[in-house]
Amino acid sequence: MARDTIFALSSGRPPAAIAVIRISGPLAHEAGQRLCGGLPGAREAAVRSIRDPDSEAQLDDALVLRFDAPASATGEDVVELHCHGSRAVVDAVLAALGRIAGLRVAGPGEFTRRAFENGRIDLTEAEGLADLLEAETEAQRRAALRVAEGGLRRQIESWRARVVEISAHAELAIDYVEEDAGEGASRISAEAGVLADELAQWLARPRAERLKDGIRVVAAGPPNAGKSSLINAIAGVEKIIVSEVAGTTRDVIEVPLALAGRPFLFIDTAGLRDSGDEIEAIGVALAEREAAVADILLWLGEAQAAPDHPRLVRVQSKADLGAPRAPRAVAVSAMTGEGLDELLEHIVALSGDLLPAEDMIALNRRQSEALGDAQSALAETASTDDPVLQAEGLRLARGAFDRLTGRAGVEDLLNALFSRFCLGK
Fold first, then answer.
1. Model confidence over 224-266: pLDDT tens digits?
2. Angle, helix 151-175 to helix 365-382, in steps of 10 degrees
3. Residue 332 in contact with residue 340, Cβ under 8 Å?
4. C-alpha distances in angstroms, 201 versus 83, 142, 198, 205?
5. Which of 148, 183, 191, 193 could staple 382 via S-S, CB 3.0–4.6 A?
6. Which residues of 170-181 are buried (b: 16+ CB within 10 A; e: fewer)?
7. What is the CATH number assigned to the segment(s) 5-117?
8. Is pTM, for the whole model, over 0.85?
């Protein structure tokens, strides 16, 4: 069956200087002809008068681009209309397109899904593009761009090619019993082991989730230690209620911030103490849980009461009151700002090994799981000299790589992934 031709606004919401309306599908060029009276050559741009196909009324003057399948973003015939970005112009052009038989409004992510289905991108590139569209920090942008531009795809293709080559030797060993069969099986095991070790190194890297969700920085300590005031001072805005009444904060309060281009999630918690108040006791339990899973823990209490944590930062709050500086603590004042820069520099330094390096491709949870399956299959291959078991292990590794790139076994993931995109993407 011929596919529907879809259209949508691909740029931001009007009003804007320019609005880009994209049309993709078998009737894209015909629709463009009807609106513009004529299209430029393939991959060329020209100014055209856009008219309503029914009334011939002029809607706008626009820059029009034409792309021919398969050399387009979606792999289909595509027309882009770069119109003036007023709401009236956009609404009029979209309404005119909606009256053309065979055209319909695109669903969320449908342009990108067609690019995936037509082989223009693989699943990892689609995931990278989704992350790029949602990026809010420089670190998120760089990491997403590396994947969206095919960095992970090329690496997977290289791994898969090596597995295919090893598989050929394993299948040959099954079909032909040779005098040096033992030597051949040992070579297969060795090559599979080298690749399994390489994948293990990739799996040990920091994951992409911290880039998206932020490094969790938890402020903990007894009541009235200055936790809420500290988070407010770091955020530069009154995000959290501050009171001299002990136990004011009873819930977990999250404040997302970007520092040095990296995403952080600062978390205020209830003061740690024994309480007969049922609600406050729940808040204390939540605070203890947050402290246990914190990436970085800011402790605003007595040194001897500090919990055991690999990235503990002792904070001496209320430094403006003139108390002697505690050893190995960062003295800060939420009132004057004293010590805040030093504290933030320390937090950024501690975050260095929690995030992927700038030149490193970061794997998300799905990618890590699939790569882990490939690594396990290759490790099993390396542990045996039986050519039949070796061939089966290599087949499982190829299947895991295919799930990584979306060649197979990912149907249940596609709707969830592409729903993250806007209509025009």
1. 888 888 998 998 877 565 555 555 555 788 899 999 888 999 9
2. 30
3. yes
4. 49, 21, 5, 7
5. 193
6. beebeeeeeeee
7. 3.30.1360.120
8. no
